[in-house]
Design brief:
209 residues, mainly alpha, Arc Repressor Mutant, subunit A, 9 helices
């Protein structure tokens, strides 16, 4: 999270919107403020100001700050899990699967929205409901990768799952490190480097009939 709160400028007050469109606008505004300020330094006033609505309008959609944060966090977690699924389903070639999955994490973490900070750098991780959402990214992504590894290598599910969790961890940690300090490496180059490392490791487990 940014260390300097209050950096997000308010939007001008707008007209009425359909409920679904208003909710989407509020979530977008909340994302900007939470990413800039962190959970604890953000107030509902800040989000209402950023969205260009009154606080009562904000409360019509979300009963409190934590509920708003959780809704936003769930959406962010759904996005990275869906990206991982699309990457795995994009090809039957496992080397390309590794590259596509790694690219999905780098694309998500490198997004200008900064949504990854809600998932991987939340300052509310001691809250069980938040922790459950954050853990869901690792668990669900690893579960999909586990199926591929187990079916391809014949390893027991527990062993395949450990390898899958390791691959997800490699993607998460390396992508976040690259975002904070790219060192002149472009996103595709960085992703390809780590994908190459991951493939050299996982390819050591031969296919079985």
């Amino acid at each position: 999270m940014s260390e300097e709160p209050g950096l997000v400028a308010p939007r001008p007050r707008g007209g009425r919107l359909p409920r679904r469109a208003r909710r989407a606008q509020l979530l977008e505004s909340a994302l900007e403020v939470f990413v800039a300020n962190g959970y604890h330094a953000t107030g509902m006033d800040d989000i209402a100001d950023r969205a260009g609505v009154s606080k009562p309008v904000l409360y019509q959609h979300f009963p409190g700050k934590q509920e708003l944060y959780l809704a936003l966090l769930e959406t962010s977690c759904d996005a990275i899990i869906a990206s991982c699924r699309r990457a795995l389903e994009s090809t039957e070639d496992n080397k390309q699967r590794v590259a596509a999955t790694m690219s999905a994490f780098y694309e998500y973490v490198g997004s200008e929205s900064g949504a990854f900070r809600l998932v991987f750098e939340s300052d509310l991780t001691n809250e069980p409901a938040v922790r459950a959402q954050i853990d869901r990214v690792t668990i669900d992504c690893a579960e999909m990768i586990t199926d591929v590894i187990r079916d391809d290598t014949g390893l027991p599910t527990t062993a395949a799952n450990l390898l899958a969790v390791s691959l997800v961890g490699m993607a998460q940690v390396s992508a976040r490190f690259w975002t904070d300090d790219p060192g002149g490496l472009g996103r595709d180059e960085a992703s390809a480097l780590v994908a190459g490392l991951a493939w050299r490791g996982i390819a050591g487990y031969p296919k079985h009939d």
